């Protein structure tokens, strides 16, 4: 596992339009040796940025996961230049992994769009849905987990399960949990039996939020954008579990199918505190739709990511009604 986020999202160029990840992808939020989707997306964004003209800013990333990526093979990216004008550039990125027979299997495709700077006309930004505490008033992941354990609200086994699933994120990001959010009270759902202060709300009205910042100062805009895609993917596919007293032991499949990352500023600096708020708005036909939004400390919306994900319950398991 990489000790630094900048190494985890780094790529090397093999030839024009062809790139490879510096490190193997990591696992997070999955007990199987399947790569974290945000890790795959961050490598694709790194490749898109490496091939884009100078002076243009990434503003849109639309992607589809075509199959799970393994944690035992590096990620290869093929970049196609779809558009280059004075104002816009578009890159199509195909992410692949080498199989035992030497053939490549595609695991993701995305379209990344870049825009040249233009003067602002209408300037506005919606606030978060809830009134969240400031970072200094929130607990770190470890502190919050220990409080839950001391209260007897989470078992040592549940704490270990959470650490095994998401502990790697702590190597890259400092996280402060907003305990008035659902995930801040039930440790992202690991303590699924905890009754939260939002249990009287419909699942579509429940919210979770955290303050997060990178543990290192990232050196370039491309590194910050790759880190942004890594961060924003986290905890969205299983947010419906977190908000409905469910955990990974209740499901047979829970992973992202497609995503849309929108970036609203030309400069992203993730070593400063950012608030990420998450909601889920629709579920049915074996799929869910959830969204995360990111604000800086001044209340400016920086980015949003929406995802449609597959959700299959274990055979015979019937969740409670919403």
Automatic annotation (TrEMBL):
Looking up Gene3D superfamilies in the UniProt record yields:
Acyl-CoA thioesterase, double hotdog domain
Q: Which InterPro entries match?
A: ACOT8-like_C, Acyl-CoA_hotdog, Acyl_CoA_thio, HotDog_dom_sf, TesB_ACOT8-like_N
Q: Where is the Acyl-CoA thioesterase-like N-terminal HotDog domain?
A: 32-115
Q: Pfam families from the xrefs?
A: 4HBT_3, 4HBT_3C
Q: Which UniProt keywords apply?
A: Hydrolase
**Which ranges carry the Acyl-CoA thioesterase-like C-terminal domain?**
201-310
> Per its UniProt record, what PANTHER family does this chain match?
ACYL-COA THIOESTERASE (PTHR11066), ACYL-COA THIOESTERASE II (PTHR11066:SF35)
Annotated family:
Belongs to the C/M/P thioester hydrolase family.
Protein name (record): Acyl-CoA thioesterase II
Organism of origin is Neonectria punicea
Taxonomic path: Eukaryota, Fungi, Dikarya, Ascomycota, Pezizomycotina
């Amino acid at each position: 596992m990489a000790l630094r986020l900048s190494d985890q999202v780094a790529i090397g160029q093999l030839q024009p339009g062809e790139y490879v990840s510096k490190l193997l992808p990591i696992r997070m939020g999955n007990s199987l040796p399947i790569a974290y989707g945000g890790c795959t997306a961050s490598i694709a964004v790194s490749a898109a940025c490496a091939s884009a003209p100078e002076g243009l800013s990434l503003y849109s990333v639309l992607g589809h996961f075509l199959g799970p990526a393994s944690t035992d093979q590096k990620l290869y990216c093929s970049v196609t230049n779809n558009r280059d004008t004075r104002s816009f550039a578009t890159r199509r990125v195909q992410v692949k992994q080498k199989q035992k027979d030497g053939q490549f299997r595609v695991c993701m495709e995305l379209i990344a769009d870049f825009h040249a700077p233009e003067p602002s006309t209408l300037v506005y930004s919606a606030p978060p849905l809830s009134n969240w505490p400031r970072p200094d008033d929130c607990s770190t992941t470890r502190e919050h987990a220990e409080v839950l354990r001391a209260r007897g609200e989470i078992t040592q086994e549940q704490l270990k399960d959470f650490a095994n699933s998401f502990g790697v994120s702590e190597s890259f990001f400092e996280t402060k949990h907003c305990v008035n959010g659902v995930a801040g009270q039930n440790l992202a759902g690991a303590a699924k039996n905890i009754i939260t202060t939002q249990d009287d709300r419909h699942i579509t009205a429940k919210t979770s939020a955290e303050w997060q910042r990178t543990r290192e100062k990232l050196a370039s805009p491309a590194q910050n954008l790759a880190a942004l895609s890594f961060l924003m993917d986290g905890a969205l596919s299983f947010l419906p579990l977190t908000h409905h007293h469910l955990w990974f032991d209740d499901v047979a499949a829970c992973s992202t199918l497609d995503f849309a990352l929108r970036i609203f500023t030309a400069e992203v600096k993730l070593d400063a505190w950012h608030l990420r708020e998450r909601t889920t708005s629709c579920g049915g036909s074996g799929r869910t739709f959830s969204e995360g939004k990111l604000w800086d400390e001044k209340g400016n919306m920086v980015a949003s990511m929406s995802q449609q994900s597959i959700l299959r319950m274990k055979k015979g398991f019937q969740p409670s009604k919403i």
